Amino acid sequence: MQTTSIQYLKGIGPKRAKSFTLRGVNTIEELLYYFPRRYEDRTNFAKVAQLEEGQIYTIKVQVLLGAQRNSWRRRRFSITEAKVGDNTGKLSCIWFNQPYLGDYLKIGASVILYGKVERYNGKLQMSNPEYEFLDSQDEDSLNVGRIVPIYTLPQGFSQRSLRGLIKNALDEFLPKVGDPLPFDLRARHNLLNLAQSLLNIHFPQDLILQKQAHTRISFEEFLLFQLPLVLRKLNRKERAGTQHMVEGKLLDDFISRLSFELTGAQQKVLTEIKADMASTQAMQRLLQGDVGSGKTVVATIACLIAIHSGHQAAFMAPTEILARQHYDKISSQLDGLTFKGRKLRLALLVGQDKEKQKIFQEIKEGKVDLVIGTHALLQEELSFKNLSFIVIDEQHKFGVGQRALLPKKGNNPDVLIMTATPIPRTLAITLYGDLDISVINQLPLGRIPIKTLQFNHADSHKAYALVKQELKLGRQAYIIYPVIEESYALDIAGAKKMFAELKAGEFKDFRLGLIHGKLKTQEQSEVMLKFKNKQLDLLISTTILEVGIDIPNATCMIIASAERFGLSQLHQLRGRIGRGKLQSFCMLVSDCPTEDAKARMSAMVASGDGFFIAEEDLKIRGPGEFFGNRQHGLAELRIANPLVQMQLLKAAREEAINLLNQDARLIERPHQLLKAKLLQRFPEYEKLMLVG
Ligand code: ADP
Ligand code: MG
In this structure, what DSSP letter does residue 470 have? Predict the structure, then answer.
């Protein structure tokens, strides 16, 4: 059944099959896993006389008066109006830009409508309700008189035709469906079997069964999602990594020469990293910490552990600007330090390096202790003499594939992955199920919280005034625009034009710089360097500035058209200021055109805490968007939601651990269906199992 193409179903020709393909459905099994987007309880329809303003209803009515009226005030804009009613009353309905509806709205036609009731000109009406026309007068058992599934429709289907198709597929194939979840597991968690679940997720007998079906299918999704993560973790425990010396003079010297004391949180995390690095097992640790919490110095110390143990370390950052910044900072921190009577040797690798071959050679011969770079580190020709430690900064900027490449250049090196987008701990444990997790939950002492303000567009001059005041005190500032070139269609200002405008006008007495992604990286670096050396007062930028830039004298940031940014991104941008001992100001300029934008702005104004912001962002966007689907296989979670079903996710993770401890290759008979399904979803799982 898994692989039978849907083309073999009655009622599906090549054309309809193709529109399903566009929705990721090719096989009959995938069709059965094409779940409804919502349900309608059509056992009881609301009566027109009972409708109240502001509520959402499903009603079954007849068309009393159907008509179409076009309005040409704007081109290509149409309004279709109809009067409908049941035996208790009448209601008007209105649809925008659906002129073809006129053909269906025939007097006497029977139609089911779903939508919000509003008051217009004193009368109740539904605007743009969803509709489903019933065949003549028939009250068939699939579409009426029950809880009815509503699907996202592939092209060429109506709700009724899709329902019919899925019902046929269920009737024919459910008897043949085997259950990938072993019986004892289902019994432990009180889960329905797969056939019952598929039936009730599509055509629920009642809402309780629908919920049970939903739980059961969610559990399966979570389990399939956790198995590869857990297996990866188990495999790793079996592989031998490097045992590092985690104490020594080099480390003590480095720490004692820092211009600050490590925070308690930094020390705690360092202890965790040391324990990993001292052990024979290869480390895979995620370091979470809010922007500015001081992750880099922790990572640097870990690099030194590798180096004084006689190995090499690599530090990968997502952009050239960041790689250079890390290189400069670490170089200066290491300046004057010696190890075995010689200086430490650093190399920077960012792509268009003129001396690339020479650097490669030195790395290969072990003449470089620490190489810092961008994804240029992933180049095939690059090999190390004895790489034993890797840092990956801002991990979300790299794909999973990229992240996996660098460790291959060493012999099971220890890996530290860093992220400035913290998420709640329980969620992190399950989502990053193959990693161990450390958290820096404290900012360095003496930081003054950033003041965040919001201005309407018309009040931009107030934000400018504050910036000027700061610039006059010798501080520096950023203004961020969402785009390089302005967009008339969307009415947003672009960095380029605003640079010219502000330079000639508002900020003519100051030194302005412009940086964006279309500049050559060389030019970008030059601008950054000037800004860093205080040869520029104000930097106009796009989001290229997003991650990791560390210039403590910059105390002001204006984010223009702030509604164009996601919440986490706003917080990341804001993290570019407030890095020193001075009061910093973040000004969001936005008219907050949507509720959602309003929510983001108020979260920003209310809090500077990255964990709080991340949680809010998760709530607003949902996990799929938040994490970026690809990254975590979250795309496979079609109905399961880790935020809402945290307990279920934990249970599934525990079962995944049980299962693999008992039968790591899933070869026992009761596990074979599960294995088949897993391989179908994650073909790369086969390789993982061979390793283990
Ligand atoms: P992030 O976690 O965002 O990568 P960084 O590592 O860039 O943060 O640190 C931000 C700034 O704080 C840097 O200038 C760094 O030198 C400084 N810093 C790091 N740790 C401390 C500390 N314990 N006390 C004071 N300043 C610190
Ligand atoms: Mg950083």
Answer: H
